[in-house]
Design goal:
With 932 residues, this protein is of the alpha/beta class. It is 44% helix and 17% strand. The strands form five sheets. Strands 1, 2, 3, 4, 5, 6 and 7 form a seven-stranded mixed β-sheet that branches. A five-stranded mixed β-sheet has the order 11-10-9-12-13, sandwiched between helices. The longest helix is centred in the middle third of the chain and has 30 residues.
Length: 932
Amino acid sequence: MITSKLLEAYLACPMKCYLQSNGERCSENRFAVLYQTQKDSYRHAGIKRLEAGPPQGSARSQIEPRGFRKAEWRLAFNQALDVDDLSATIHAIQRPPTEERSSEFIPIRFVHLNKPSRTNKMMAVFDAIVLSKVAGQPISAAKLIHGDAWTTMKVRVAAHVLELTKIFGKMRALLAASSPPDLILNRHCPECEFRDRCREKAIEKDDLSLLTGLTDKERIRLNRRGIFTVKQLSHTFRPRRRPKRLAAQSERYHHSLRALAIREKKTHIVGKLRLPIQGTPIFFDVESLPDSDFYYLVGIRIEVDGRPTLYSFWANTPSDERTIWTDFLAVVSATEKPMLIHYGSFETKFMKKMCDRYGSPPDGSIAAVAIASSLNLLSPIFATVYFPTYSNGLKENARFLGFEWSDPTADGHQSIVWRNLWEQSHDPKFRDKLIAYNREDCAALGVVARALGQLTDGEHGAGEARPLPGEVVHADTVSGRTSSWQPFKSPISDLEKINLAARWDYQRDRVFVRSGTAKRRATQQATRRPQAQRVQKIVLLNTPPGCPRCEKKWRKRGRLQTKTVQDFIFGKHSIKRRTIKYEAQTYICRSCGYEYGLGNLHLHGRRWGWNILAYCVYNVIGLCIPQLTVQHSTNRLFGCRLVRSSLNEFKIKASKLYSDTRAKILDQIITGKLIHADETNANIKGRLAYVWVLTSLTDVVYILTESREGETVQQLLKGFKGVLVSDFYAAYDSIACAQQKCLIHLMRDLNDEILNNPFDEEAKLVALRFAGLLRPIVDTIDRRGLRAHFLRKHLREVERFYEFLDNKNFNSDAAAKFKQRFERNRDKLFTFLRCDDVPWNNNNAEHAIKAFARLRDVIAGSSTKKGVEEYLTLLSVSETCKNRGVDFLDFLRSGETDIAMFALRRRGREGSPQSGSIRKSKIFLQHSRFLA
């Protein structure tokens, strides 16, 4: 039977409902007793007010169900109505006068609070539902009479009936269960009669709900991952390096670090603690009656040279509120350089409301400056200091630091009980208890402030501050993983010194030398200066037959220009370094006097040949070897004397040459019928940037942007008419073309959700249905390829899958999110079933992204934006060569700039006797370009 009492308990806490239904005995909770007493007295007073109104027929006795149809009364009180499995105790029922035969009934509920809660409204709707079933007619609204002013509020039944119906189903399952529901501590616990019992059980289970601030949504997510206790949660903390761009933003709160602090019983600190206390600290605390919005006690503690001065301002009635505010401002104004310090936002609201009600102090005055610069001590603690306590409340933190209240039951709810008892009896002992409790709160605030000062200064025991209990740990030093190569640490200093003496370099530098074993010198072969070598090959550069300026052939012989370079000669199975001399015979035109025939050969150029450039670029771009490593290996193996600047110049020269090649690749991709797109982050001198990759089945191009907004890519693909294959990043959705989302990304997200939430059966069901849909499609692709003629038959299965999603109402957050994701991308998930040669995944782009990721590790953020652009130009050429089946090194050595033409010529010239001479002429031409 669902009764009014059980429903009200369920709305507060399902465990409370279960315990009340089983007649569980509870411990004494003075606040719960006071709350129930106030409810009953307010209800009796409300009934008397209705009876004292205009004379009308009333019914106090129980009314039979048939009495509602022939009702002659206008008011009925304390009616207990039962229908089906619902039982409601209605405070009052009003039947307004009407000329019609059947009039509407209005249930009335009395609530002593000035601010009715959601529970009060739901209870009024419950009264209306039960009354409508008993009376046999619909009821559209119920009344709430609440507060000191006996305000009437109208509650519409239709706005809450659907939610209440769902609650009925959950309550029936709860009351029929043989075991209690999961124990979850919530905000209702401090005012519940089962408070002590539930907290003991939660501590015994080490339940996650002990952590104040952990929302139900986060707790359910952790439960689905198999994390049910605080200890289990503590093992999930991993220190994260905070990016410099987020240094000015507030730190994120880590529940896992709170759990770790509790497990290890140590205070943990994230980042740097800042405590801006300047001047004379004034610790103050305020007590109030929240429902009445009445502040009746302000306590002040001023500490100068370790000696506290205490003030307590008491208000008997709301009319005295102005007086205590004036006294508070007077004390602040009389203090030299006052610094107001409080705990939480409650005192901040107090000062704001007092200024609104009774006026702010003059601008620029001592009090006005102190109020504007007041310090909420919880702000520097939150997300920065994690004491080994379940919450950041003043009581728990101060108790951990060694402070104790004289009355162990004292808290905010108990203060309301004492104030109520004082108002009823005016007994001074209750007033004294409240003042003592308020002063101890101020003293506890001082203890916490001094402890934070020690954490800020790195000192322990400064002044009158007590030593911090336990060890203080910085979260950055917490090791997330264990390693077999951990540093040796020991409480015995001699053991650490012995361990240091066993180090490899220590033994070679000191022990072996002293024992007579001389340390061998490193070979100096790599650093020897190479001997001057004679010219081993002479290449004569071709001269134009006529003057390039006037096109006349009348000329005379000019100077003979030469350039000697070091270059590589590639054999079939070897590489040799050779000294090559290039000669250019110049001629002077007899008509215009122009000297020509240099072939872009300048005597002040670098002394390295094109093959060395191709070899170094291939190592850096194609093999992802750092430039410094390429420099060392080339110098050691071939006896070169390359310097770092030479390799950087190689990169600049090559990227400049192939910039047109990159532009042509981009044009071919955009004018094609299929594009794979993806993006990843890049590091430019510590600044975050992004690299986008566009690729077809044969071409790859990389684009650098400063942000991830995607405006550049959207502009490039503005006229694209083919199919775009991408992941689920929203920047691609605005591109007006047919799209295919990567199903591998979707499958991985589904799988991760199942692994993170192993007990989420609904999410697992969605994953199973999706896998059952995709598996036959993949089998068809393996047998028939990406041909729409064979894949269209699976469209019907896709429709059945969406019908399954449409007919399912998921309670799981994960399953509901995936349902929304499937619906949002309905037209973009199965485009490949209707188009030929469209892949169902984005592996082409991901493969290209991996190539950049390998190069990114080599660059390591040391390059500028211009340098990264040069790397991306060469990487675009390298990956395009790979996709077209062309060797990147051969393409670099060839002197070609068109990859497609190079591939065709290479295939067409295989076996041709002239191929060697043609290639040599191309190399000579490339030499002249490079030497420029």
